[in-house]
Structures are given as structure tokens and as C-alpha cells.
């Protein structure tokens, strides 16, 4: 997969919006690793929740030109930057300021992708709408992620796939348990140690008979 160009972004803009980092690129690597499977399913609609600069959803859109891509972010500046990144890379795309995926109708997305704010912090730090929202994850670094986990069964198409990046401190086994209680199976797509952080991308899907 191609990495989207970012020459349109002023470095100072990253004071306000999450700058693409190893986790962003691990998510792109995970999608690349799953490319054949994804191509065979020909997804019509892809949502990235919390798109920040927009590099992940744009990379997806570049690899799947006939998939309509959309993203949300709680940080309005991130929505603008995501839209510019997509436009700069000639991807047809839209971005909306929204809490997670709360305002979409049910069962529409073939693919949902999330690189959440995963750093363990006090609850009070979590839940803003500025650059802090990029990383502050509250208890277990999971407060934002756990809210999305409750939305996934409704927002994902019945045969859809959800890609989620986590770190060890988020206790991935608990996430797997929550999703299993919602009827989802999982696979580990990639894992990588970055400095002292063990990053992992899981994918969740239902068995359709
Ligand atoms: C770790 S950054 C990831 C950014 C980008 N997806 C990437 O991989 O480079 C997390 C993103 O989630 C957004 N975010 C945090 N809480 C959110 C919420 N409740 N709803 C939507 N987006 C949220 C942040 O503003 C930030 O852009």
C-alpha cells in the first residue's frame, strides 16, 4: 500500500492534531497484510473513527478506489486535516466531527478502523476535544475504546470487519472478551514492539452462516 503524501500539512498543525506515528503506520501495515481478504470482499463503505491527520483512511482509500471512505474525529481541526489529506492524495472522502460513530444509522459499515487514545491516564484527562484527545485514554487507556466497543455491533454490517489498535496496558484479552460477548471472533493481524510499547492490531468479525 502507498503511504499518503503529507506535504500539504504545516508542521505547526501537529501542535493541534495527532502527528502520524508508528501506531498509525502499524494500522496501515495491518490493512496491507489483510489486503487479499479485503479485496475479495469488495467493501462499499469504510469508516475510520478518530482519523487525526487522515493518513490511515486515505491509505485505505488509495488502495480501494471504489470504496467510499468517511471518517470522524472529536477534534474539528483533525476533520479538516483529514479532508485535506484525502483531497491532496485524490481520494474521494468526507470527514465529520462526531463522538465516535454515534450519529450514523445502523449496520452500514463494511470496515471500521480505530487507533484510539490508548495511553493510561486519569479519567479527568480523557474526553476532551483537543490534542489531549489524541492520547489520553483514561483508566486502562480504554475509556474511549470501550465506548466504541459497545457501538460496533450496531454500526458494523453483519459481515463487516473492525480493526483496532491496542497496547499491552489496554489488556487486549479483556477487549477480546467484551467483543466475544457481542458475538465476534478475532484474529491478531500484526504486533510490534515500539520502544517500550507493545502495539497490536486485532480484527473482529462475526461468523456468518
Ligand atoms: C491516536 S490518535 C490516531 C489518529 C490517526 N487515526 C492516526 O492513526 O494517526 C486518536 C484520534 O482519536 C480522536 N478521538 C479521541 N476521542 C474521540 C471521540 N470520542 N470521537 C472521535 N474521535 C476521537 C483524537 O482526536 C485523535 O485524532
TrEMBL record:
GO terms for molecular function: nucleic acid binding; protein-glutamine N-methyltransferase activity. It catalyses: L-lysyl-[histone] + S-adenosyl-L-methionine = N(6)-methyl-L-lysyl-[histone] + S-adenosyl-L-homocysteine + H(+); methylarsonous acid + S-adenosyl-L-methionine = dimethylarsinate + S-adenosyl-L-homocysteine + 2 H(+). SUPFAM superfamilies: S-adenosyl-L-methionine-dependent methyltransferases (SSF53335). Signal peptide: none annotated. The keyword Transferase applies. It comes from the Eukaryota. It is found in: Nucleus. Keywords: Methyltransferase, Nucleus, S-adenosyl-L-methionine, Transferase. Heterodimer; heterodimerization with TRMT112 is required for S-adenosyl-L-methionine-binding. This is Methyltransferase HEMK2. It comes from Bombyx mandarina.
